Task: structure prediction
Amino acid sequence: MSEPTTALPPALLVDLRAALASEELVTEGDDLAYYGTDRCRGDWPVAPSVVALPRTVEQVQAVVRACAAHGAAIVPSGGRTGLCGAATATRGEVVLSLQRMHRILEVDPAARLLRCEAGATVEAVQLAAAEHGLMYPVDFAAKGSAHIGGSIATNAGGVKVLRYGLTRSWVQGLRVVVASGECLRLGGGLVKDNTGYDLRQLFIGAEGTLGVVVEATLRLCAPPAGLVVALCAVPDEARVLELFARVQAHGLTLQAFECFDQGCLRRVLEHRGMQGKGPFDPPSPQHALIEVEVPEPGDAAHEATADALAECLADAQEQGLIADAVLAANGSQARELWALREDTSESLHRHRPHKSDVSVPVAELPRFLAAWRRRVVEALPGVEAVVFGHIGDGNLHLNLLQPEREDPQAFAARCKAFDEHTYALVAEHHGSVSAEHGIGLLKRAHLHHSRSPGELQMMRGIKQALDPTGLFNPGKVLPP
Ligand code: ZN
Result:
């Protein structure tokens, strides 16, 4: 249920109707709330006044100019998979959805560049790159729904950050509609362009608070010649880290190094009706999913990489770093091992988890986790904590599961109060309150744990300079 919408100035509606066809404008019904909020709703109100679904850059400019002229705020909206409320209209804003601007405009295989409209999904970009034997390597579970524009606005991460970096590393150029209604071209075809402030980078990770990304030029790369995947049973988190160091020291190039604990795996197996049929007997407290790259094409190179990983894991087992390991013999076994990790979020869903996406320096991970788990036991009796994450990036997804009989609202209130402990602990360990999902509405109040007063003041100054009237996504990112 959406909250009652705030009335739109009639003159603004006249201007919007002049810019957009009637089916490009939603003023009532379920679609208002659909486009007006993140797919995973928080406890904030949902109150968009209208949804604009432009098909062209000129229409985006017209909407921005109309809103600026009538003092209406804009919530830029992509695939709405960010989970932090950055795409939620809470007080009668105009939602500007890029949903209908989804064309792949150009692929230049020689330059390894792809240009697309902001509403293209991350998956569509990956597929278009693959048609030319190339790869867009930013990869995460929501890629089928997430828009490129939204992934740029939130600087999305995922499971391959260890090898390829965040979205930021892959954006060569942007077209952005700014508060004046002008469409700026920021970077593009040039690799070398050393001409002062890099404005393009400002819009990456700004969560739609500085302007609307309408088009992107993305870098592509060659895909790996092959991949070898293994799943390890590890006694504890400290040894997961030692294993991480060991695999790298062995000269293997990691594509991913993920972890998930016994609580996560149990939920995945339950979700599939496979209770007790896990990959290891006895069940392991911790797991490390390792994916390494085969350096060159051909069966011989593939075998050599698999042998090297097997040898590395045998050494690790001898020294007590791991209790057991499964090496995938083929692609379908590799996908099966990956699914044990990637199905985690979906499998936890029915336990209504309270989630936190945080990072700490890799070396701090075991100390941080031990301290966090201790605090959960002390402050949240009856609540089970389960953790998975991208160990190689120091990124943990902390999940507090709702006890069966607890009232959802009481549980949410307990967890919300506990968040302050979590983020204070993150700060003590020199970490970040948001590793990859962003700030949105969800973490504004905790941003001070990761950004100094000087930084926050500078961020406010940038917002003031680029969006002096507060046109774009008011109330998001910066603390009130
Ligand atoms: Zn993640």
Remarks:
- The longest helix spans residues 408-428.
- Residues 1-5 have pLDDT under 50 and may be disordered.
- Residues 390, 397, 436 surround zinc ion (CB under 6 Å).
